[in-house]
Automatic annotation (TrEMBL):
PROSITE patterns noted in UniProt: ENDONUCLEASE_III_2
Comp. bias regions, Low complexity: 1-12
Chain segments carrying region Disordered: 1-22
Enzyme class: hydrolase
Taxonomic lineage: Bacteria, Bacillati, Actinomycetota, Actinomycetes, Kitasatosporales
Organism: Streptomyces chisholmiae
Necessary cofactors: [4Fe-4S] cluster
CDD domains in the cross-refs: ENDO3c (cd00056)
Name used for this protein in its record: Adenine DNA glycosylase
Keywords: 4Fe-4S, DNA damage, DNA repair, Glycosidase, Hydrolase, Iron, Iron-sulfur, Metal-binding
C-alpha cells in the first residue's frame, strides 16, 4: 500500500498504486487466531442459523443478540418451524432486540423458504435476494458465510476498515456508495473460500480493533499498511456522523407498547396500552405506526394483539 492523505481519493476509492492483495494474508491470519467463537460460525449452525444471526445483528450488538439467538434456534431450528407459527410469535420472541420489523421480515423469509425451496435456505444469491426482507447485504452474507461463496459483504464494520486502511479516511460515508462497492469488489480474493474468510475477517477486525471510537491500532495486523495511520490519522472531514437517539422518541414509545403486548397472554385493551406513556398524541402516533407496520393488530372489539396470536 502506498501512503495517501485523506484528500487524495474520493471516499470509498483505492489510491493509485494500491495493492489490494497485500491486506489479505495478515487480516486472515489475524482472524484465524482471534476470531470469537460465536454460535452462528459453528458448522452446526447451518445456513438457517447464519440467516437468523444476520437479521438479528443488524444495528444490534453481539452481546444482546446471543441469548435471543440461542432461544430462537431452540424453538425454531428450521425455517418451516418458524413459518408454521403466527408472525406475532416471532415479534414476541424478538424481545428487546429493537427494530422489531426485522422479526416480521425473518418470519416472511422463513415462510418463503418453506414454500419455494423445500424448507432449505437457497444457495443461489439471486434466490436469496428474492426472499422477503433480504437485501443485498444479507444475501451476500448468507451466501458467503453459509455457503463459502465469493461475494462482497459490506457492513458498517467492513466499510470502516476499508475507509481507514485503503482510502485514508477515518470514517466511511453515511450511506454506502458505488465507490465503496467497487472497492469491496477490488479487494475481494479470487478463490471463493478465501473470499468468504476475508469477508468474515474484515468484519471481525472492524468489530474488535478498528472500532468507531478508540481503535486499537497497536494490535492491528495491517497497521503498517493502513493509509489512515500513514497519513497521520487525520480527523473526519466529511458530513457529521449521524447519532441515534432513543429516550423520548416514538421508537421508545413503540417499544413500551410492544412490551405490554409481548407479555400479555391475551389481547389487551386500549386502556392498558394508554398507561405506558404520558403524551397521548405521541402514544397514538406510535400505536398507529405499529398498526401500519403490521406489528400490532386491532380486533373488532377494540382490543390489540401481536399479529395472528391468541
Amino acid at each position: 500500500m502506498t501512503a495517501t492523505t485523506a484528500t487524495d481519493t474520493t471516499p470509498g476509492e483505492a489510491p493509485p498504486g494500491a495493492d489490494p492483495t497485500a491486506l489479505h494474508a495478515p487480516v486472515i491470519e489475524w482472524f484465524h487466531h482471534n476470531a470469537r467463537d460465536l454460535p452462528w460460525r459453528r458448522p452446526e449452525a447451518g445456513a438457517w442459523g447464519v440467516m437468523v444471526s444476520e437479521f438479528m445483528l443488524q444495528q444490534t450488538p453481539v452481546n444482546r443478540v446471543l441469548p435471543v439467538y440461542e432461544e430462537w434456534l431452540k424453538r425454531w431450528p428450521r425455517p418451516a418451524d418458524l413459518a408454521a407459527e403466527p408472525a406475532g410469535e416471532a415479534v414476541r420472541a424478538w424481545g428487546r432486540l429493537g427494530y422489531p420489523r426485522r422479526a416480521l421480515r425473518l418470519h416472511g423469509a422463513a415462510a418463503a423458504i418453506a414454500e419455494r425451496h423445500g424448507g432449505e435456505v437457497p444457495t443461489d444469491h439471486h434466490q436469496l435476494l428474492a426472499l422477503p426482507g433480504v437485501g443485498e447485504y444479507t444475501a451476500a452474507a448468507v451466501a458467503s458465510f453459509a455457503y463459502r461463496q465469493r461475494h462482497a459483504v459490506l457492513d458498517t464494520n467492513v466499510r470502516r476498515v476499508f475507509a481507514r486502511a485503503v482510502t485514508g479516511t477515518e470514517y466511511p460515508p453515511n450511506a454506502t456508495t458505488a465507490a465503496e462497492r467497487k472497492l469491496a469488489r477490488l479487494l475481494l480474493p479470487e478463490e471463493p473460500a478465501t473470499a468468504a474468510r476475508w469477508a468474515a475477517a474484515t468484519m471481525e477486525l472492524g468489530a474488535l480493533l478498528c472500532t468507531a471510537r478508540n481503535p486499537d491500532c497497536g494490535r492491528c495486523p495491517i497497521l503498517e499498511q493502513c493509509a489512515w495511520r500513514r497519513a497521520g490519522a487525520p480527523a473526519h472531514q466529511g458530513p457529521p456522523r449521524r447519532g441515534q437517539t432513543y429516550v423520548g422518541t416514538d421508537r421508545q414509545v413503540r417499544g413500551k407498547l410492544l412490551a405490554v403486548l409481548r407479555e400479555a397472554p391475551a389481547p389487551v385493551s386500549r386502556m392498558l396500552l394508554d398507561r405506558v406513556w404520558h403524551d397521548p398524541e405521541q402514544r397514538s402516533r406510535a400505536l398507529g405506526g405499529l398498526l401500519s407496520d403490521g406489528l400490532v393488530e386491532r380486533l373488532p372489539d377494540g382490543r390489540y394483539r401481536l399479529p395472528g396470536t391468541g
